[in-house]
Amino acid sequence: MAQPPPDVEGDDCLPAYRHLFCPDLLRDKVAFITGGGSGIGFRIAEIFMRIQVPARGTGERSRIALGGVRTSRPLQAARKLAGATGRRCLPLSMDVRAPPAVMAAVDQALKEFGRIDILINCAAGNFLCPAGALSFNAFKTV
């Protein structure tokens, strides 16, 4: 029987990563990842940070903006990712259901990096129930 991946129990960084893509694939790119504090968004942020190289002519080591609903989640994720990759990402607190919060987070990322090239939306409101049993507000949230 196959063993589960080492990160199944939590959002921990991979013990090692072999590049599947060209190491400079994301050169000079800025990624904005919502829901990056955990789950799939966390892993995408980690892989992006591992394959990113510094922007030409800068000392920058990473250009990732990581958004999450609770301030603690993206901040904790950014610390884990920095420890594992030696790179920095910008943790942002935002709720994708609140347009003013999204606009403020985007403005903060633009102020820090000057642009956003890649948007990855992993933020979601999830309810474990049949779709037909969702209330209108629950459906709207998802």
From TrEMBL:
Enzyme Commission number(s): 1.3.1.124
Q: Which residues form the signal peptide?
A: none
Q: Give, as one word, the top-level EC class.
A: oxidoreductase
Any one GO BP annotation for this protein: fatty acid catabolic process
Which superkingdom does the taxonomy of this entry point to? Eukaryota
Q: Does the keyword S-adenosyl-L-methionine apply?
A: no
Q: Which UniProt keywords apply?
A: NADP, Oxidoreductase
Q: Which reaction does it catalyse?
A: (2E,4Z,7Z,10Z,13Z,16Z,19Z)-docosaheptaenoyl-CoA + NADPH + H(+) = (3E,7Z,10Z,13Z,16Z,19Z)-docosahexaenoyl-CoA + NADP(+); a (2E,4Z)-dienoyl-CoA + NADPH + H(+) = a 4,5-saturated-(3E)-enoyl-CoA + NADP(+); a (2E,4E)-dienoyl-CoA + NADPH + H(+) = a 4,5-saturated-(3E)-enoyl-CoA + NADP(+)
Q: Name one GO molecular function term.
A: 2,4-dienoyl-CoA reductase (NADPH) activity
The record's InterPro entries line, in alphabetical order, gives: DECR2-like, NAD(P)-bd_dom_sf, SDR_fam
What are the TM regions of this chain, as residue ranges? none
Record's SUPFAM superfamilies? NAD(P)-binding Rossmann-fold domains
Q: Which ranges form a coiled coil?
A: none
Partners and quaternary state?
Answer: Monomer, dimer and oligomer.
Give the protein family: Belongs to the short-chain dehydrogenases/reductases (SDR) family. 2,4-dienoyl-CoA reductase subfamily.
Identify this protein by name.
Peroxisomal 2,4-dienoyl-CoA reductase [(3E)-enoyl-CoA-producing]
